[in-house]
Specification:
- Two copies of one chain form a homodimer.
- The first copy, chain A, is α/β, with parallel strands linked by helices and 345 residues long.
- The first copy, chain A, folds into three domains: 43 residues, Orthogonal Bundle (434 Repressor (Amino-terminal Domain)); 133 residues, Response regulator (Rossmann fold), CATH 3.40.50; 131 residues, 3-Layer(aba) Sandwich (Rossmann fold), CATH 3.40.50.2300.
- In chain A, 44% of the residues lie in helices and 13% in strands.
- In chain A, the strands form two sheets. The first copy, chain A, has a six-stranded parallel sheet, sandwiched between helices. The first copy, chain A, has a six-stranded mixed sheet with strand order 7-6-8-9-10-12, with helices on both faces.
- Chains A and B meet through helix 4, helix 5, strand 2, helix 6 and helix 12 of A and helix 4, helix 5, strand 2, helix 6 and helix 12 of B.
- Strand 2 of chain A pairs antiparallel with strand 2 of chain B.
- Chain A binds a DNA duplex (16 and 16 nucleotides) through helix 2 and helix 4.
DNA sequence: CTGAAAGCGCTTACAG
DNA sequence: CTGAAAGCGCTTACAG
């Protein structure tokens, strides 16, 4: 019923091994037999069984993509479709398939990674996040399995291939941008300190403050979990401070929109009363009100390059680890403005 | 080096077939040997080779997800992450893996579907779109391969399991909502007539017009391809008409935001000068300006249910085809308003 | 309740 | 340039 390599072999009067070789386009098979075998394959409607091939060849020609479980880093976040698009393009170009994790808790995801690797389902893995003390990362590293991170590993960053923006300097620059506009009370909104990216950005933010002779005020840092339930309360808290911030750095445009909406409900106008700057530069941000000043982090490239590096590594596991920094660009629009002169309390 | 079923068998003093049976938790194996074998498995760090299992058992325990290639239906569209989330949850609950297409042209995608099916990579397929005359659909149907559509098939809809909203009636209701506000010149923006969803929605729109005694004006229908380059021109064209529309029905919130932005550049205010209603009800739409009136189509459920149906079908291929309609809800916010009295031309 | 054997559909040294 | 044979790591009738 199902056409196998044997059927083709019989019909073409060759051995199964020969058929296998013409599928692989082995150079030592004569053009003549290649042609004949190919005709028979077409005639019989032969399609190779990928499972059998994987088993025999010890390679699945697919890469596993590990999604994080955090709310901030969730499917709701436009970051993921866009990285996936980059990965997808690279995978397709190199004839690799894509296998996705489905778990939602850290434990589930960890189990999936183990089963993908030990079950030989994938030839390599891309981690779409970098978490402090990540078990999956340790497992992959210890198993010496090809993998790549979109982000910066929390340790051993020389030994692990990863693709990331320069989050420290980018955030420093973003913060400086606000400082140059005269802002001194700048809040940092969102992010989860369990992720490296948040730490890097927070550090960049602190460095900029420090260099400008400003002191970091803990109250100006709003953690992700305070946002989950209601960004509203976080904003209300910030604005009820004796010295409320005059500028906000948020981790994602979507978050910025929500903040802006809550601010306006308090009758605080962006950018007149408070400046907002964000990351990710969604297409939409050009059309939002006000058009949002945001950092384009080249999400697509992060995915594309991470996948390219992984495939390189799969093909040649002896390749040394490398770090690739994807450039960022600050897109100035209308959500930031020089600080207004105000009476200091 | 790699631990196989044989190693476990030897260590546990049983036959490989017995080990296989304890993995499958076969009822006719005694608890005693199950326990012993499991201990050995743990001791040796055994993990089943999924490829080998798939080959022998003729089942991959993974489902293939086919993404469409259109711009409107692209990764940029928040629809996809959200369906994927639904599918992902269902797949995980039933211990299925997820395999994604990576192609971007119709041909590439078609080839991938063929290779997924014939290569036995997946046990079933979910089509995340429904296109007129879709080759992939025909192929799957003819091959009698388990599959499910998020959407309504363009033909034979009794014979193909699919999950969709009632797009005709929902759009009729949306249009009626505008008509009840006094609007008579209502434009329909976006969508590609190559997709069933667009046809359904356009039909619902026309039905509402007709029942209200209004005539459908072709100029009020703006196709997707006119939007791609610049929604700006489409809006400028519409508003330069002798009788410009007083209301817009758009296919997605993101598209609505863009339209609103272009309108305001022309100094046309939403909802004062023109009403806008949309589909998908992104979380963001609560915080946009103005808060957008939009139809919640329950994207997550579309994915979840489509996946549940597929898995059912995989487990029992004799199951009759079914259609499941996911309810929609019109979320009224501030982007629609009664039509202003205006001088008719 | 358990085992021996055949088989899933390929690939790949080895030999000629 | 091509073939015969072993093997990838499982599952599953069949037999007892």
């Amino acid at each position: 019923m199902v056409i196998t390599i044997k059927d083709v072999a019989k019909q073409a009067n060759v051995a199964p091994s020969t058929v296998s070789r013409v599928i692989a386009n082995h150079p030592r098979i004569s053009e003549k037999t290649k042609k004949r075998v190919r005709e028979v394959m077409k005639e019989l409607g032969y399609h190779p069984n990928l499972q059998a091939r994987s088993l025999a060849a010890r390679s699945s020609q697919t890469i596993g993509v590990v999604m994080p479980n955090s709310a901030f880093f969730s499917f709701q976040n436009p970051f993921f479709p866009e990285v996936l698009r980059g990965i997808s393009t690279s995978a397709h170009d190199h004839k690799y398939g894509l296998y996705l994790t489905t778990g939602t808790t850290e434990d589930e995801i960890f189990e999936e990674v183990i089963s993908m690797v030990n079950g030989k389902r994938v030839d390599g893995i891309i981690l779409l996040y970098s978490r402090i003390n990540d078990r999956a990362l340790h497992f992959l590293y210890d198993a010496d399995f090809p993998f790549t991170i979109v982000g910066t590993p929390y340790c051993n960053d020389k030994g692990i291939t990863h693709v990331d923006n320069d989050n420290i300097n980018t955030t420093k620059r973003v913060t400086n941008y606000l400082i140059e506009l005269g802002h001194e009370r700048i809040a940092f909104i969102g992010g989860n300190l369990g992720f490296v990216v948040t730490n890097d950005r927070l550090n960049g933010y602190k460095m900029a403050l420090e260099e400008a002779g400003l002191t970091f005020d803990k109250q100006y840092y709003v953690e992700e979990r305070m946002l989950k339930e209601s960004g509203k309360e976080a904003i209300e808290f910030l604005m009820s401070l004796p010295s409320p911030p005059t500028a906000l750095v948020t981790q994602d445009d979507l978050m910025a929109y929500e903040m802006i909406s809550h601010l306006e409900k308090l009758n605080i106008k962006v950018p007149d009363d408070i400046s907002v700057i964000s990351f990710n530069n969604l297409t939409l941000s050009e059309h939002s009100k006000p058009p949002l000043t945001s950092v384009d982090i080249n999400i697509y490239d992060l995915g594309l390059v991470a996948s390219n590096c992984l495939i390189e590594k799969i093909k040649d596991p002896t390749l040394p680890a490398k770090r690739i920094t994807i450039p960022t660009e600050l897109i100035e629009r209308d959500s930031c403005q020089p600080v207004k002169e105000i009476v200091r309390s």
